[in-house]
From TrEMBL:
Keywords: FAD, Flavoprotein. Residues 400-414 have a biased composition (Low complexity). Residues 2-343 form the FAD-binding domain. It comes from Streptomyces siamensis. Residues 394-427 are annotated as: Disordered. PANTHER family: P-HYDROXYBENZOATE HYDROXYLASE, TRK SYSTEM POTASSIUM UPTAKE PROTEIN. It comes from the Bacteria. This is 4-hydroxybenzoate 3-monooxygenase. The lineage of its organism: Bacteria, Bacillati, Actinomycetota, Actinomycetes, Kitasatosporales. Residues 415-427 have a biased composition (Basic residues).
């Protein structure tokens, strides 16, 4: 089999990249090791930055998101029994975020790809990326019990943290920056209307808690748990009791309980692989970097990577210049490190570290007081949460001649494709 761009992995990064390339008239093949139902049901992210929403819409993948997504203009920080609302539009010049689950983004992109795009093979496990340092990279994969080879002009590793693509970068060229945290998150879905109309991030001596949602009828909730804890050791009633304690307030706010329909534990880590490119292999999304979920940044970073890459591949196709491809890793890493910093700050601000001293606890409260009481500190949080610009580095270095313009306008134009793909837009 042969294609221009071989994409390993059909998470949000791989699926959106395939869509953007389709809109730009560049063919691709997506290989996904799992089956369609698994990819469509894997519970993960819930928050889309404004830039992500704009890109999905411009790519023609925003119809259901515009109907069912919930616009959120703020979050609540809870500490010491107090409640403090961070008002995003007021602090950022009008920015907000959208609650629309990753499962739904993936369902929308899969349906579009199967209807209009190139091949998307489920149950196709990449075994290795080979010859990435040459003009003829290839992916060796297993499909329907047989081994096969996908010959490509470019390979993109969108295969997540546990994927194989990263291994094709020679060890001597890789640099890994990593931190693991001594706790994880127990996440549950519950058939009960959310107990608050915005997300609540709570700092408590017993540990962090987060109240989120999937729809007006379904709540998504998280509890900090010790490293190594399992979901099975948590009875449903114990989860609700613990959420109630950690989310408690001094006023009459009450947590609504309901049937828990799924529960799982996620470890917490920060991880960056540099560079994000080796020869004709590009890494995007969780394959290149992981953030702890406290900042709600992982999916949004993946979108930033593939927009940057789609624009660079389009530029190469139209002008023959590899300038933007050459800048890919550096362009992405600037934004990645800002998201790493923000996610680290949110994590250390809100979680109780088992090794922390009473002094550390007081410093945490002082940081929260500062955010609640100082516009500058609160603005910093609001800007970080609602998102960093998609291509600060392109703007700084200036795009090569003929490249799409930088900034939000460039990202949206890249998402539509050069022909101005008629992405269905909100009326
Ligand atoms: P994914 O989603 O992991 O997809 C990778 C895909 O590659 C496939 N694969 C292979 N395919 C073929 N051959 C192989 N050898 C393969 N190996 C793997 C996998 O089956 C999979 O389908 O990576 P991608 O596309 O980079 O997307 C990244 C996001 O999924 C991730 O960053 C977010 O979910 C992180 N995240 C959040 N991000 C946000 O922006 N906002 C949030 O609110 C948010 N909340 C979260 C989160 C992640 C969480 N967990 C579970 C880690 C909340 C949680 C609890
Ligand atoms: C979610 O709804 O799954 C969610 C929301 C915010 C986060 C992490 C996860 O920071």
């Amino acid at each position: 089999m042969r294609t221009t761009v071989g994409i390993v992995g059909a998470g949000p990064a791989g699926l959106l990249l395939a869509r953007l390339l389709h809109n730009a008239g560049i063919d691709s093949v997506v290989l996904e090791s799992r089956d369609r139902a698994y990819v469509e049901q894997r519970q993960r992210a819930g928050i889309l930055e404004q830039g992500t929403v704009d890109v999905l819409r411009a790519a023609g993948a925003g119809e259901r998101m515009d109907r069912e997504g919930l616009r959120h203009d703020g979050i609540e920080l809870r500490f010491d029994g107090r409640r403090h609302r961070v008002d995003f539009p007021a602090l950022t010049g009008g920015r907000s975020v959208t609650v629309y689950a990753q499962t739904e983004v993936c369902k929308d992109l899969i349906a579009l790809q199967l209807e209009e795009g190139g091949p998307l093979l489920f149950g196709a496990e990449a075994l290795a990326v080979e010859d990435a340092g040459t003009d003829r990279p290839r992916v060796r994969f297993r499909y329907e019990g047989r081994e096969d080879v996908l010959d490509c002009d470019y390979v993109v590793g969108c295969d997540g943290f546990w994927g194989v693509a990263r291994q094709a970068v020679p060890a001597g060229l890789s640099r890994v920056f990593e931190r693991t945290y001594p706790f994880g998150w127990l996440g549950v879905l519950a058939d009960v209307p959310p107990s608050h109309d915005e997300l609540v991030y709570a700092r408590h001596e017993r540990g962090f808690a987060l109240l989120s949602m999937r729809s007006p009828e379904v709540s998504r909730l998280y509890l900090q748990v010790p490293q190594g804890a399992t979901a099975e050791e948590w009875e449903d009633e114990a989860i609700w009791d613990e959420l109630e304690r950690r989310l408690e307030t001094r006023d009459d706010w009450r947590l609504r309980r309901g049937p828990i329909t799924s529960k799982s534990v996620t470890p917490m880590r920060s991880h960056v692989h540099e560079p994000m490119r080796y020869g004709r292999l590009f890494l995007a999304g969780d394959a290149a970097h992981i953030v702890p979920p406290t900042g709600a940044k992982g999916l949004n970073l993946a979108v930033g990577d593939v927009v940057t890459l789609a624009r660079a591949l389009t530029h190469e196709k139209e002008t023959g210049s590899a300038a933007l491809l050459d800048a890919y890793s550096e362009t992405c890493l600037r934004r990645v490190w800002q998201a790493e910093r923000f996610s680290y700050d949110m994590t250390t601000l809100l979680h109780s570290d088992p090794g922390a001293s009473p002094f550390d606890g007081r410093i945490q409260l002082a940081r929260l007081e500062r955010i609640a009481g100082t516009r500058a500190a609160e603005t910093d949080l609001a800007e970080g949460y609602t998102g960093f610009p998609l291509d600060e580095a392109v703007r700084r270095h200036g795009p090569a001649d003929g490249a799409a313009p930088a900034g939000a306008e460039g990202a949206v134009r890249a998402a539509k494709g050069r022909a101005g793909h008629p992405g269905r837009r909100r009326a």
